[in-house]
């Protein structure tokens, strides 16, 4: 087989020029700044502006990461939905400390939350579940998320079987599907800067206020 030249990734880089993040730009509450950045990510038409990378650890301390979509946020935390038997759910049951990272490359930004995940009540979940497109509701029933399966056709067949079964009327919430609220105690904002002198600010919750520190890039 002919040798293919590898892409020269060591030399792939760009200057970050979209402007810095200064103390005067910060808000006392990190959620206010987060909301501003999220709106800007949406306005900039980034693909999946609400996509966040969730890190969990297994019982050996081995970290795992995967993308999920942020579906709600307020001062009590950030909410995402998933399968409650999935690998991530098993990790959270064992150790509920998680990290959530929003990678907004096109804006030369990232935001990282640290906190603890807690399961949402079925009452809260059902409202969101029923707001999803019907096919997504059926897909939630079909997939034993994170389990090994032998073929895609199993999913397709189950999907059509359930589509038929649920064709008239509401689709019930599967008992194994739900959501998590991540209560955060630390938020870090990163904005790329010129000459590789980036701006980082770390917010840490201290009893009754957010302490803000600048970190070296
Ligand atoms: C853009 C994008 C959005 C996703 N959104 C979700 C989501 O909201 N919930 C979810 O359970 N999985 C979502 N996934 C799939 C997860 O990344 C992951 O494959 C799945 O949750 C199983 O993870 P686990 O086996 O570590 O539990 C998304 C993947 C991508 C790429």
Automatic annotation (TrEMBL):
Cofactors: FMN
EC number(s) from the headed UniProt entry: 1.4.3.5
Binding site for FMN: 66-71, 81-82, 87-88, 110, 145-146, 190, 200
SUPFAM superfamilies from the UniProt entry: FMN-binding split barrel (SSF50475)
Leading EC class: oxidoreductase
Function: Catalyzes the oxidation of either pyridoxine 5'-phosphate (PNP) or pyridoxamine 5'-phosphate (PMP) into pyridoxal 5'-phosphate (PLP).
Protein name: Pyridoxine/pyridoxamine 5'-phosphate oxidase
Organism: Arsenophonus nasoniae (son-killer infecting Nasonia vitripennis)
């Amino acid at each position: 087989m002919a040798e293919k030249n590898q892409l020269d990734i060591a030399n792939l880089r760009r200057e970050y020029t979209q402007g810095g993040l200064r103390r005067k730009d910060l808000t006392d509450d990190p959620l206010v700044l987060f909301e501003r950045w999220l709106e800007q990510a949406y306005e900039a038409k980034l693909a999946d502006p609400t996509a966040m990378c969730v890190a969990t650890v297994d019982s050996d301390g081995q970290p795992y990461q995967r993308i999920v979509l942020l579906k709600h946020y307020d001062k009590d935390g950030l909410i995402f939905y998933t399968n409650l038997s999935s690998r991530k759910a098993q990790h959270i049951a064992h150790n509920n400390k998680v990290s959530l990272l929003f990678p907004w490359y096109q804006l030369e930004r990232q935001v990282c939350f640290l906190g603890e995940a807690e399961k949402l009540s079925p009452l809260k979940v059902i409202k969101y579940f029923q707001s999803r497109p019907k096919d997504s509701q059926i897909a939630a029933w079909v997939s034993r998320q994170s389990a090994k399966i032998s073929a895609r056709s199993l999913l397709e067949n189950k999907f059509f079987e359930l589509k038929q079964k649920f064709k008239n009327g509401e689709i019930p919430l599967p008992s194994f599907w739900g959501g998590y609220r991540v209560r955060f105690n630390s938020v870090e904002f990163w904005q790329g800067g010129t000459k590789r002198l980036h701006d980082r600010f770390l917010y840490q919750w201290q009893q009754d206020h957010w302490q803000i520190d600048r970190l070296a890039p």
